[in-house]
């Protein structure tokens, strides 16, 4: 719809011109036109005005996509491959406005298929068929970050975890090997209307809570880890260097 409406306005309406009209980038417009990453409701409204589309035409499509994402996620949670202790946390992930996570490896929402499979095979997560199911579920959960209005995510990752990753990616701050770390992983969710939640996971169990005192304890731990982590730019440089080492 966006592409056809833009082209209908004339040759001078390039992706760059449309991007300028809606205060976005040509790359973002290209992603929308290819169907790779839909706009959020605010950007959809701006596109409607710029492209002279009927009010609500794009916004309604975005809302439909959001409902489809919820239905798809509910189906994922009904599978046996989803641990019962994690289901509440996963439901809340879909609602969250922000996710701040610390992990000794690459967080599940940012893992590639090969990385997820390697972790599960080393952890003896089950038979090959069971591992296939776990990997499929983990990758499908990443729809959380592809929904029209995804949560803002910041991850602090232990440097040792990157040496085990084939293709680390995402918005990551690396915790240098020399810095003090913690065992396992935990995540903090910021939910609508400011409500907070915390999820901690070990080798074979996990726990989700919205108890304010417990959440704040995890928040303090996260803040200390983030304080020692590298900047985004330095983290990317380290990840590139690790990737080059693996290629060699």
Could you characterize what this model shows?
By secondary structure, the protein is α/β, with parallel strands linked by helices. The protein has 2 domains: 2-67, 434 Repressor (Amino-terminal Domain) (Orthogonal Bundle); 84-247, Endonuclease, Chain A (2-Layer Sandwich), CATH 3.30.870. It has 11 helices and 6 strands. Strands 3-2-1-4-5-6 form a 6-stranded mixed β-sheet, with helices on both faces. Helix 5 (57-77) packs antiparallel against helix 6 (87-95). The protein is globular, with a radius of gyration of 20 Å. The protein starts with a helix and ends with a helix.
Low-confidence stretches: 164-170
Which class best fits the helix and strand makeup?
A: alpha/beta
Tally of individual domains: 2
The SSE order reads: HHHHHHEHHEHEEEEHH
* Helix-residue proportion: 40-55%
Gross morphology is globular
Task: Summarize the structure in short.
With 248 residues, the protein is of the alpha/beta class. It has 11 helices and 6 strands. It has a 6-stranded mixed beta sheet, with helices on both faces.
Keywords for this entry:
alpha/beta; Endonuclease, Chain A; 434 Repressor (Amino-terminal Domain); 248 residues; six-stranded mixed β-sheet
Describe the protein's topology.
Layout: H1 2-8, H2 15-21, H3 26-33, H4 41-50, H5 57-77, H6 87-95, E1 98-103, H7 113-122, H8 128-140, E2 152-158, H9 159-162, E3 172-175, E4 185-190, E5 196-201, E6 206-209, H10 212-228, H11 232-247
Parallel strand pairs: 1-2, 2-3
Antiparallel strand pairs: 1-4, 4-5, 5-6
Helix pairs in contact: 2-3, 4-5, 5-6, 7-8
């Amino acid at each position: 719809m966006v592409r056809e409406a833009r082209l209908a306005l004339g040759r001078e309406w390039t992706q760059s011109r449309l991007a300028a009209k809606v205060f976005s980038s040509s790359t973002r417009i290209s992603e929308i036109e290819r169907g790779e990453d839909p706009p959020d409701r605010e950007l959809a409204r701006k596109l409607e005005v710029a492209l002279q589309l009927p009010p609500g035409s794009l916004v309604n499509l975005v809302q439909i996509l959001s409902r489809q994402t919820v239905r798809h996620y509910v189906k994922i949670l009904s599978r046996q491959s989803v641990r019962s202790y994690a289901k509440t946390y996963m439901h809340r992930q879909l609602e969250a406005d922000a996710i701040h996570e610390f992990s000794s490896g690459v967080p599940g929402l940012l893992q590639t298929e090969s990385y997820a499979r390697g972790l599960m095979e080393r952890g003896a997560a089950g038979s090959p068929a069971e591992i296939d199911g776990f990997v499929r579920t983990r990758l499908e959960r990443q729809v959380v970050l592809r929904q029209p209005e995804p949560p803002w995510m910041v991850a602090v990752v232990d440097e040792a975890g990157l040496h085990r990753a084939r293709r680390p990616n995402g918005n990551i701050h690396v915790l240098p090997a020399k810095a003090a770390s913690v065992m396992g992983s935990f995540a903090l969710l910021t939910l609508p209307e400011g409500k907070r939640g915390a999820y901690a996971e070990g080798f074979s169990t996990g726990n989700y809570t919205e108890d304010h005192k417990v959440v704040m304890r995890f928040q303090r731990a996260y803040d200390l880890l983030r304080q020692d982590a590298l900047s985004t730019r330095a983290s990317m440089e380290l990840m590139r260097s690790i990737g080059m080492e693996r290629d060699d």
